[in-house]
Structures are given as structure tokens and as C-alpha cells.
Amino acid sequence: MKKNSLLLFAVFSTIVSAAQPTGLWFDGADLYLATVNPLTGVKTNIAQVPLVTGIVSPTFTKNNNLGTYIFRGVDNSNTYYLTELDFTSGQVVNMPLMPDNVRELQYYCADSMIYGIWDDGMVENFVRLDPVTGMKTTIASLPTVSAYVGESSFIDPVNGIYYLGVLDNTSTYRFLGIQISNGTVVSNPVFANPNITGLEYRCADSTVYGIWWDGNALQYIKFNPVTATRTNIATVPGIFAISIGSQSLSNNGNLYYFTGIDQSSSLRLYELNALTGALLNSPYMAETVNGIMLDYGCCQPPPSGLNPDPTVLSFTIFPQPALDLIKISGDFLNENAAWKIMDVKGSKLMSGSHREKNANYFELDISGLNPGIYFLGISRPNGQSGQSKFIVVR
Fold this sequence. Notes:
0% of the residues lie in helices and 49% in strands. By secondary structure, the chain is an all-beta fold. The protein folds into two domains: 22-293, TolB, C-terminal domain (Neuraminidase, 6 Propeller); 316-392, Immunoglobulin-like. Strands 12, 13, 14, 15 and 16 form a five-stranded antiparallel beta sheet that branches. It has a four-stranded antiparallel beta sheet with strand order 3-2-1-25, with no helix packed on it. It has a four-stranded antiparallel beta sheet with strand order 4-5-6-7, with no helix packed on it. It is globular and about 70 Å long. Residues 1-5, 7-18 and 301-309 have low confidence and may be disordered.
């Protein structure tokens, strides 16, 4: 048994959305970003992925802010890269070196960072990855973890918790809940059914869905990560085996996809109703597409109440991502509002004040900023203030 991965049961992907599934296809020589038609199973190449010719599983995730597909790729000289591709064009957005084999990658919208598990040779660690630089930061060590269950991770974006199935040093399966901000383990119930996989948080109903092999048939389930218990929704007919890969779930869609092998040993793309588990489509796939995911926006936390905090200023930054200029809209434009731009460490890089009469927005020149993640803070004369994130790419 591999120390840091227990691929007991896994899938290429599980998705809930109306968009077209997208993944990676290897033709024997080159790697391509490709879409799969959910009705016909037909693959269409978007673009060839430069430099890398292989993928490391399970290391697929997506940048919900930028609309990009992220995975750990390897070239012919065994050099590893954190590869980030535009979902629509397939063009490279970022491709920093990624020497450390961080697994179970999950993108977190709140800070635009990637989180995962890394074995340093002695102990498993909960780590953060910068998708722009590839820099790894260890948040906390997990000394009681001896291995993890492959394809079991997901993030609860509302509570900021990273979840993962593990095997502890007493050979007991547990389902860890790790606070993203500081790495504290906030829950670790016994994980009685480690054959559960494809777990993803659905924002529309704040519920986790997944699939479970009960020994005889595949079950579509709801999963409670705090208690590590499941509720069967429906049996998926005709499945003989599940393909190994990654999983993803759309925030507010009603469709759930995964790839599997039917009883005639044919590869199919299965489409389920996300709420009832009813099988809607199961086209044959002539070609294997790995790491199927969908492009969608970030999960928005539910409103905390009908009356927003009057001291917090709301405003919009566009375009996202930005090149050399950002535009800011809000109800403060005719006031002498102070602004400042900070990096992810909170260091002030630019500042000033602005007043724009009879306009829908004001502009800031950001051509002097390097590609990366930044925060714009604005303060009104009445004391109301707010902060919002933007991303610079070139």
C-alpha cells in the first residue's frame, strides 16, 4: 500500500452544472485540453498543452475566480509544473515549477490559493500552494495521519474547512475537517465507508454529494462530513467499475457527471440528476479524458441577514482578471474616497484618493503591478470602508 495515497475507489470526475465537461486527453505523444459532449460522449480538443506530456493524479482542481483548469503536469525530463490553463482557449495562464508532490488539490475562492496534502518523508502536512509562483507553505503537520484516501477531498467554502478521508496511525479510517486559516483539525469522526468518493460541496443547498460502492452496486449519496455518515439517494444502474481520476462539482447546477465502465467493459460518461440521482444520459466514450471538470464561478456564502453591516462598503472591480487597468463602481463616486492597493501579505503598494462626478466608475492604472493577487481597499469620508480582491495577469 502506498503510504500517502489510498485509491480505494475513485472517479475521473463528478460534476454538477450545465456547462460542457472539460478534461485532459493524451494521444500517445501530446497532451490536450478537451471537452466531452455529455449527450454523445464525443471528445473535441481545445488546445495542445505545451511542455508537459503527463499528468499526476489526483492533482486536478480549478480556479473559480479566473475560469482556469489546474493540474500537476510532468515533462519528458521528469520536471513537474503546476499547470494552469484557460478553460475556453486552453492557453497557459501560469506554469510555475512544482517539485513537491502535493496531492488532493482544492482551490479556495476566499484567498485564491490552492490547498492540499504533502508528505515530507516523515509526516503528512496540510499545505497551501500559490498558483502563480508554485510556492508551497506548510500550514500544519498531521502527525496522526499515515495515509489519505484518494479522491475524497473537498472544501466547504462557507466555513473555510478542507475535508479529507485518511487512515490514522492506529489503522482507523477517519474523515478530517481542517480549518484552512490555521490548519486546526476541527473534526475527525470514524470514516466507516472509505469507498465513498467524488465528494463535493453544492452551494445551492449547502449539501455534499458523492458516490459509494456498496460491494454490489454504485450508490449516489448525500454525505455529512462532520459525522462521516451517508444517506443513499439512488442506485446507479449498469456500473461495473469506476475510473480513477479527479472530481469536481458545480455550485448551483443540477447535473452530476462521472466516468465509469459498464458491464460490457465499455467506458461511459454518466449524467445524473444531482438531486434525485436519476440516470439521464450515459453515452459511450471512445477516448479516455482524465480529470473532467466544469468551468463555473465561485460559491457565494449565503447572506447573513436582511440588513447588511452599515459600516462595510461594497463595490465592484472589473474586469477580472485585469491587465493594466481596473475599473471600480459603487455609490461613493461623487465623494473624495481614499483608496489603497495591497498585496496578499497586506503590504501597501499604491494609494491615493479619487472623486468622479457624473460617472459610473473610476479607473486605476495598475500597469506597474506584477501578475498576482491584490486587494483594493476604499474608505469613504463617513468612515464606511471595504476591501475587494482583484487578479492581474499578462
